[in-house]
């Protein structure tokens, strides 16, 4: 550095001393941290925290402006420059059940990737409390500005909509979103995770009617995906709505329930990865 400074001085080339740094093995350049010891480009911790705050702020809103969404996607696109290829990503997107399942994976031996890292896959869990179906497209759009196209998208959502919208309209919205998703991401496998039953349906006038709607929506989405090349997970262990599978609120899952829910997702993913022609987990008898 001294020799370089001397050369610049002799040639009367100005140097901004306040911007000079080094020699060193870690250097922040254009907003990214370059680490020559580990041969990595990292996102600085302060930028990661700021990005998390932006994402959480958007997820908590029912509506955001175009300018606000552009700001978030711009930040995500910037950070994507420091991320490895995600060609074997699996995105699991859904409501608080997905959020709690993600937290529960940390207590299991297979970890957050459900043991699928040995097959070359990593899992990105995106769970949001109170999530409604109309939030799915914007979340996927934001993710695509952050990471490359995933190999698999698994969606577990729709339960929070059943008491607020007619099942025919909900089924139409789900099918339309999936149609657009599969059209725009033809190399991505789309998996529908059946809406689970609940012991308590909040704001429901008739629990049995909601359960019938749930069953109709699940059957409708499954039939649609069968015709267009998607896949489905049935979660048959929850069919009898056994109390031990649910938390005290009758909506979320107990420790055992989370284990069973995650086991089904893990087994289904293993099946669909190894046997690409399989459509349903578990198979019909």
UniProtKB/TrEMBL annotation:
Transmembrane segments: none annotated. SUPFAM superfamilies: DNA/RNA polymerases, SGNH hydrolase. This is SGNH hydrolase-type esterase domain-containing protein. It comes from Mytilus galloprovincialis.
């Amino acid at each position: 550095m001294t020799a370089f400074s001397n050369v610049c001085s002799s040639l009367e080339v100005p140097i901004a001393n306040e911007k000079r740094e080094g020699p060193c093995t870690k250097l922040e350049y254009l907003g990214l941290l370059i680490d020559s010891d580990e041969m990595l480009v990292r996102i600085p911790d302060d930028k990661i925290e700021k990005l998390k705050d932006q994402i959480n702020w958007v997820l908590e809103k029912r509506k955001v402006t175009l300018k606000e969404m552009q700001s978030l996607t711009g930040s995500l696109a910037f950070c994507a420059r420091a991320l490895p290829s995600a060609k074997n990503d699996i995105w699991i997107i859904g409501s608080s059940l997905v959020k709690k399942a993600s937290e529960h994976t940390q207590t299991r031996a297979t970890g957050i990737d459900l043991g699928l890292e040995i097959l070359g896959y990593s899992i990105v869990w995106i769970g949001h409390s109170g999530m409604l179906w109309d939030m799915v497209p914007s979340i996927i759009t934001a993710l695509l500005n952050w990471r490359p196209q995933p190999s698999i998208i698994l969606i577990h959502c729709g339960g929070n909509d059943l008491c607020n919208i007619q099942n025919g309209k909900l089924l139409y919205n789900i099918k339309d979103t999936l149609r657009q998703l599969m059209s725009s991401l033809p190399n991505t496998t789309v998996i529908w995770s059946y809406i689970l039953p609940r012991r308590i349906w909040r704001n429901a006038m008739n629990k049995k009617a909601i359960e019938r709607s749930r069953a109709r929506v699940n059957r409708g989405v499954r039939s649609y995906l069968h015709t267009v090349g998607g896949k489905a997970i049935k979660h048959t262990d929850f069919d009898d709505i056994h109390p031990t599978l649910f938390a005290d609120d009758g909506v979320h899952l107990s420790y055992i329930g989370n284990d069973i829910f995650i086991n089904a997702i893990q087994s289904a993913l293993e099946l669909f990865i190894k046997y690409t022609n399989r459509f349903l987990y578990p198979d019909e008898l």
